[in-house]
């Protein structure tokens, strides 16, 4: 089942000239004009207002992901990024016919509380974490940067995360976080399979809407696909993310702001 959201609605996979932080998010529009746009993300997904679109079942969403060798895991000072070097693409579903969207990277979004880490909410309910699989239209554009802000340029597949069993597909990531405690640190892992992040084998239960990146430059014309059913990771994996990444990022922000003041 695929639902289209009518809400008029921020991940920055590209490069910014200005530094930014979540603490001044309300002021992003002063430096990044797109943040003042009409279709900004994230949004609350209201299941009662979603419109069921049966036509999306006729052309199913079709990820063709391949195992990535020598992936780079990065702490960029805001989040953890998994940069992929293999040619993984997705087609079909709500995407333009005969267009391929290439998977560029995976990003993590979490909070300081187990129950409120996701950027999007479902009926105003938050999840502990949210993963973003960031794609760009490789049929129309040469790079992700070229695709930013362009119609049909960027696709983000979002996955909510709940706490339960260990997620074996993310084990290679959570095990290296202790080496990524500081901004700019990176680690090469030998193997990562993005297929393990897809929770629904039939790829049918999702919401779709047009929004924006959720961080500067907050570019719009982003197609969002959000899976209804969350993937599961263990409490220990969440603790690794919290201890090794969140606390160090928070300490850096507090220390930096204190010095500036």
Radius of gyration: 18 Å
Proportion of strand residues: 25-35%
Structural class: alpha+beta
How many beta-strand runs?
15
**Low-confidence parts lasting 5 or more residues at pLDDT below 50?**
7-11, 251-261
Number of H/I helices? 5
Summed over residues and divided by their number, the pLDDT gives a mean of: 84
Q: Percent range for helical residues? A: 10-25%
The CATH topology corresponds to Carbonic Anhydrase II
The CATH architecture is Roll
Count of the domains: 1
- Distance N to C terminus: 51 Å
Largest sheet: 13 strands, mixed
The CATH class: Alpha Beta
Shape: globular
Enzyme class: lyase
Family: Belongs to the alpha-carbonic anhydrase family.
Protein name: Carbonic anhydrase
Pfam families: Carb_anhydrase
Layout of SSEs?
Layout: E1 2-4, H1 28-31, E2 44-45, E3 51-52, H2 55-58, E4 62-64, E5 68-75, E6 80-83, E7 89-91, E8 101-110, E9 121-122, E10 129-137, H3 144-147, E11 154-163, H4 171-174, E12 186-192, E13 206-212, E14 220-227, E15 231-233, H5 235-260
Parallel strand pairs: 1-13, 2-9, 11-14, 11-15
Antiparallel strand pairs: 1-3, 4-7, 5-6, 5-12, 6-8, 7-8, 8-10, 10-11, 13-14
Organism: Solea senegalensis
Domain Alpha-carbonic anhydrase: 18-261
Function: Reversible hydration of carbon dioxide.
Descriptive report:
The chain is of the alpha+beta class and 261 residues long. The protein has one domain (2-6, 24-260): Carbonic Anhydrase II (Roll), CATH 3.10.200. It contains five helices and 15 strands. The strands form two sheets. Strands 1, 3, 4, 5, 6, 7, 8, 10, 11, 12, 13, 14 and 15 form a 13-stranded mixed beta sheet that branches. It has a two-stranded parallel sheet with strand order 2-9. The chain is globular.
